[in-house]
């Protein structure tokens, strides 16, 4: 089975995996080198211990590739597929030393990214039937943003801006520092490329009116009640896109989506996702043809 491509830039993937392996392996996997024969051959399966949306198999494959290019890796499910408890999601075979050295880093990536994809899929399902897109935020693990935002896409969500460089988002402190919403939008519009959107954070309906009149492209309706969201959407009347943010969880997201907003940004997709329980089970092949199962959870 092949994995669906979700456009992880390979140069960034390679560097992230290199750093993770350097952090974990350092000068060498001393336990494996001292206890496992260098010519021992094994196979291992990555198994979901609980149901969830799988993400990160290409990252795991890159981990094993960097450890040993001769390892053979096979995906048993596609990225974005829901795996049931006990289902094999990846198979790897080759030198036992290499599998053992790469197993923890590979598992860490798949567990973390699958947790994000699983959480995202739940939010997407709760907003189904509305026009609202579920999007992430910049509340990501430093150094892992490209992978965590990738996992959001695998789970059916969408990406907000990747950093401070690819969209204008005028928040409350910017408004204070620039002398008001109108002044902030005017300066942003004068200096930003014509292709770049300008988002304005609004805490009150008064700010909503100011932001619409100033020409904001997207109005971020921050920590508003359901009643306020409905009133804000009506006040904007399609003159700008609407984004709900703050107080969004699995209990509130359906109601928020029903208010008619275009976007719902959810920091919890990345900052509060629980890693999916996944293990790696290895079988070592001996010269006599027998095998020894090892659980590397």
Tell me about this structure.
The chain is of the alpha/beta class. The protein contains eleven helices and 13 strands. Strands 6-11-10-9-8-7 form a six-stranded parallel sheet. Strand 10 (241-245), helix 10 (253-257) and strand 11 (263-265) form a beta-alpha-beta unit. Helix 8 (205-214) runs parallel beside helix 9. The chain is elongated and about 75 Å long.
Number of helical elements: 11
Radius of gyration: 23 Å
Distance between the termini: 24 Å
Indicate the percent of residues in helices: 40-55%
Whole-number average pLDDT?
A: 94
Largest sheet: 6 strands, parallel
Order of helices and strands: HHEEHEEEHEHEHHEHEHEHEHEE
Q: Give the low-confidence spans.
A: 288-292
Spatial order of the strands forming the largest sheet? 6-11-10-9-8-7
**At CATH's second level, what is the architecture of the largest domain?**
Alpha-Beta Barrel
Total number of distinct structural domains: 2
CATH secondary-structure class of the largest domain = Alpha Beta
Strand runs, count:
13
CATH level 3 topology of the largest domain: TIM Barrel
């Amino acid at each position: 089975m092949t994995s669906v491509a979700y456009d992880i830039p390979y140069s960034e993937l390679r560097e992230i995996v290199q750093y993770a392996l350097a952090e974990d392996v350092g000068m060498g996997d001393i336990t494996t080198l001292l206890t496992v024969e260098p010519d021992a051959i094994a196979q291992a399966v990555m198994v979901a211990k609980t149901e969830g949306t799988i993400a990160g198999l290409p990252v795991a494959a890159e981990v094993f590739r960097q450890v040993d290019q001769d390892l053979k890796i096979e995906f048993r499910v596609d990225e974005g597929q829901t795996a049931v408890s006990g289902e094999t999601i990846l198979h790897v075979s080759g030198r036992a030393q290499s599998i053992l050295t790469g197993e923890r880093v590979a598992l860490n990536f798949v567990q973390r990214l699958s947790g994000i994809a699983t959480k995202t899929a739940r939010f997407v399902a709760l907003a189904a039937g509305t026009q609202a897109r579920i999007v992430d935020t910049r509340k990501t693990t430093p150094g892992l943003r490209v992978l965590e935002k990738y996992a959001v896409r695998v789970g059916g969500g969408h990406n907000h801006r990747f950093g401070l460089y690819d969209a204008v988002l005028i928040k409350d402190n910017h408004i204070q520092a620039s002398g008001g919403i109108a002044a902030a939008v005017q300066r942003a519009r004068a200096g930003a490329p014509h292709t770049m959107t300008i988002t304005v954070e609004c805490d009150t309906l008064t700010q909503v009116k100011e932001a619409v009149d100033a020409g904001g492209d997207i109005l971020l309706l921050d920590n508003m009640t359901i009643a306020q969201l409905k009133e804000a959407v009506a006040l904007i009347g399609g003159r700008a896109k609407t984004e709900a943010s703050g107080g969004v969880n699995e209990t509130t997201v359906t109601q928020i989506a029903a208010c008619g907003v275009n976007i719902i940004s959810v920091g919890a997709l990345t900052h509060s996702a629980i890693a999916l329980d996944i293990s790696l089970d290895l079988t070592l092949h001996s010269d006599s043809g027998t095998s020894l199962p090892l659980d590397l959870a």
